[in-house]
Amino acid sequence: MTSVIARSAKSVLHHHIKHGLPATRIGVKQYANFRPSVLPQASSVTGIRSVPACPFGTKFSVMGKPKVVFVLGPPGSGKGTQCEKIVKEFGYTHLSAGDLLREERNREGSEYGALIEDNIKNGRIVPVEITCALLENAMNKTIQATGNDRFLIDGFPRNEDNLQGWTNKMADKVEQQFVLFFECSEQQCTERCLKRGESSGRSDDNAESLKKRFNTYINDTVAIIKHYEALQLVKKIDASAGPDAVFEHVKTLFGEQK
After folding, report:
1. Is 76 flagged in the annotation as binding?
2. Where on this chain does CMP bind (predicted)?
């Protein structure tokens, strides 16, 4: 298949793949030698240089197009918990856009740590160039190391810029199965996040950041869900119940997939 990460660094993933990974949540920690050069260079004026939305260069598996399910919903709707259950039951690999960004932010020597932290803390969406590069590094590494080509992409795309960046470079290279949308009230999600914040250590699990995150979700992400609804790709789940009850509905959806 055609190449998929950093044209200027065609062999970057082959250089970094050292160990096989299980079919589970993938983050930057699993490949500490990730080279910042595959990401766009920062600018003192805009925070990011204008470059193609997703720098590609390595190859996907010869098995066929990777199968992708986007997982969307407001913060605290249980996306991560349900993804963990889907991984165990159906063998998908869970790619959390938020986890990848947080791990890159915390990676020693990252050129983008401060930029990522500023966006996360203020409830803004990180530029698509960074998110897309991290997602694709994780997808390629998983396929190369394990052969697993089924992915849950959690928390992406979150706005029009994300959608365009993905569509321009990835739409013809993956099989989009559907969008899994977890619907839950702001009040309930906020309570869940504040409870999680007591032990998560996340800088955005607080009342001030949550308000900003919900505003971002309503102003930006809801439009993406409506876009996929128009394409009849959205599978909606009521996420107000407990995790096990919600997963019973999730299992029905995934059981229908070939």
Report:
1. yes
2. 162
